[in-house]
Predict the structure.
Amino acid sequence: MLAKQQNEFNKLLRQEEEARQEFGLQFSLLEGASADSAFQESYWKSLIDRQNKLIKSESRQESLTGKRILGWMRIACYEQYRSQFKAADYLHATLTARVYTILTNDYSSYLMLARAYAAREMKRQALKALKKSADLGLKQRKTIENDKFFAILQGEKGYQDILKTIDSK
């Protein structure tokens, strides 16, 4: 019984290490991207779905492993985004935020994405991500009104509708 548990544990450790290496490799490929078209959404969804399947496993160890891997991925994306944004590397911040939205799918992830698009003056994409953020629960109007990157959106069609959505929460 103990040997079986040790084998299962070792298998999960290898699986975790492989997932981290694969994530790291794909992340480094994003770092070398020179355009938004380099983003392979289906690949990222597949990678994340594999971890979500582990989380849903009846095996407690598999479930914990999946949670640990996804938690690590979230932290890696968030920290990478912050670093990229601080360095004014807005293309790569956008790509990283896109991965983060797949991982997290909450208002803060879409707010990050909207900010990266706004920094690149990609108004349509910024408004779309900002609307999604509002739909997912963004409640603080000041969050976007006080952000210099969102200033370019104030005169755009749809911006006031987003503010109304936020105010209605």
